[in-house]
Amino acid sequence: MDIQLWHEILEPYELAVQELIVKFRYxxxxxxxxxxxxxxEAVTGRVKTVSSILEKMQRKHIAxxxxxxxVEDIAGIRLICQFVEDIDKVAELIKKRSDIEVKxxxxxxxxxxxxxxxxxxxxxxxxxxxxxxxRRIQVEIQIRTMAMDFWATIEHxxxxxxxxxxxxxxxxxxxxxxxxxxxxxxxxxxxRNEIMDxxxxxxxxxxxxxxxxxxxxxxxxxCNKREVEKIQDEFYRIYALNDIEQLKRFHAQLDIIAExxxxxxxxxxx
Length: 270
Fold this sequence. Notes:
Low-confidence stretches: none
Number of strands: 5
Structural class: alpha+beta
Order of helices and strands: HEHHEHEEEHHHHH
Strand content: 15-25%
Distance between the termini: 71 Å
Oligomer: single chain
CATH class of the largest domain: Alpha Beta
CATH topology of the largest domain: Beta Polymerase, domain 2
Number of helices: 9
Helix content: 55-70%
Largest sheet: 5 strands, mixed
């Protein structure tokens, strides 16, 4: 298979990864804009290198003609969660999407690999539009916690270094670390509600401040500068109190003031 052909094969996979990263990141943004907790913390993606694809084809005795059907993880998306409980929620979000078709799934959370690896895998089909027409691309989506991702990243690096023959004493340390990761995830789950409440409150405050500053900026275009400066000073005073309820009330009052000035501006124009 020549170099040019590899380029043509991988291009649609690169497009699929780019599109899915954008879509999942937008899903995070939507949760934040609505003051809701996002079960997805971060999104990454990659397309396998040619050398990695060739190695897998050789190891699993896959013929070139069967490449795109048999190698299901040429395109990969990784969704990182804060808590184990979020993983099922993210999997359900994916299954409900109309632009993604789930082909198969593997639960390495409840059925951990012997190595200590834990993650939830979905093989999905995703359609991209190219100059040559539509292409149905297989994508592997991995869902895991931040702690699981840390362990898996280290283990993957060691597998690469030792050509999948990691020395026994290092395997033992990895196994011990995997146990520690399970304990860490379990401990974090005990304070999940408190962490979620804190993060939601922080996001609500961020959204409020953004809206208030936008309103104040718009008021500079509609009314006397000195009046706006007084409103701005009042905002700084309330913000310093670190009281989200007072901030909400100020925001509601500011909306009324801004609407009044907008109405005056329309009347003046008429």
